[in-house]
Write a structure and sequence with these properties.
Layout: H1 2-14, H2 23-29, H3 37-69, H4 79-118, E1 125-134, E2 137-143, E3 146-148, E4 152-156, H5 163-174, E5 183-191, E6 196-204, H6 209-218, E7 222-226, H7 227-232, H8 240-258, H9 291-298, H10 306-316
Parallel strand pairs: 1-6
Antiparallel strand pairs: 1-2, 1-4, 2-3, 2-7, 5-6
Helix pairs in contact: 1-3, 3-4, 8-9
Keywords: Membrane, Transmembrane, Transmembrane helix
Length: about 325
């Protein structure tokens, strides 16, 4: 077992300690940026966990093989050999599991308490975010070097989509009540256990005068970024939620141009990556909240070992 752990940890170190998503978890809860406690653990402690695994595996491997290599045991089936090679490593692993369980139980409690103090409605809330798009540009306000949409608010948690609430909010902010074409629901993520959710909307401005009025009203000054500018600077300078939103938009748009909802390819060119414009988002006949597109982007006939992965996803993970 220790050798297996070392092999896994070594493979991860070669990948620069980067992790992958559990597909079911990704579809159910969204990106780590859209989660609370689990998102914090995933984003902040991945490297710590892998390095801890590497150290623990190394210790167990030394305890298991070093005494044999130096001839410490008179006979390999002696009581001392069994204690050192079986029970001591097992005790170390159990102790480590209990420690990590206690650690993340404590982290969860602290984060929940922080959420109750930091967020409104005692942490049981819905966050509504609205990205403003005009032609081929997106509007952001920069705060302490981080670009984000200024149009966001919270309300008490409920299961219903808050499209009308978002319309009233934008009417208050910009002075005009948007219709269903102007304000489009993009997608949402929900945590029913902790009673939190995030809804993401796209607002298509008629002209920039609406935003200028908003800036005069609030004293804020924003900037318009084109799609190429977003792509060039996407790795830094944006809030985590903006990164999550555009990851979803890009993935769904490109995947829906390549595949039908049933997984059949539209364009039979391997490696082809379609492009799209921001103005297409207003009338794109695609459901951004449909998780099939996210699943298809990670699992399609262009990936290696397609048949094996198909069987795994269908019969082990239950994703059809």
């Amino acid at each position: 077992m220790a050798v297996l752990y070392l092999v896994v940890a070594g493979a991860m170190s070669r990948r620069q300690w980067s992790n992958t998503f559990c597909t079911a978890c990704l579809l159910r809860n969204g990106m780590p940026q859209e989660r609370e406690v689990l998102g914090h653990i995933y984003a902040s402690e991945t490297r710590y966990l892998y390095r801890r695994l590497l150290k623990m595996s190394g210790l167990v491997a030394v305890l298991t093989f070093a005494p044999v290599a130096i001839g410490f045991y008179k006979t390999p089936d002696s009581i001392l050999a069994k204690i050192v090679s079986i029970y001591v490593p097992l005790a170390l692993m159990v102790a480590d599991i209990l420690y990590m369980r206690f650690r993340y139980s404590l982290v969860g409690t602290l984060r929940e308490k922080e959420a109750e103090e930091k967020f409104p409605f005692e942490g049981k809330f819905k966050l509504i975010r609205i990205l403003v798009i005009k032609d081929e540009k997106v509007y952001f306000v920069e705060n302490e070097g981080i670009k984000d949409t200024p149009f966001a608010f919270t309300e008490p948690f409920d299961d219903e989509v808050s499209h009308r609430t978002a319309q009233r909010y934008m009417a208050d902010m910009l002075g005009e009540s948007p219709d269903n074409d102007t304000l489009r629901f993009c997608y949402g993520t929900i945590d029913p256990i902790n009673r939190r959710s995030i809804e993401h909307y796209l607002y298509f401005a008629g002209d920039k005068s609406e935003i200028r009025q908003y800036e005069e009203k609030t004293g804020k000054r924003g900037l318009w970024l084109s799609k190429p500018e977003l792509e060039q600077n996407f790795s830094h300078g944006f809030s985590r939620l903006v990164c999550s939103e555009f990851h979803r938009i890009y993935t769904v748009m490109q995947t829906s141009k390549l595949y039908f909802p049933n997984g059949k390819k539209k364009i039979l060119i391997k490696g082809y990556k379609p492009s799209f414009s921001l103005s297409e988002l207003k009338h794109a006949e695609v459901d951004f909240s449909d998780n099939r597109w996210m699943l298809l982007s990670r699992f399609n006939k262009d990936v290696s070992f397609y048949t094996l992965k198909k069987a795994w996803h269908r019969y082990i993970e239950g994703l059809n």
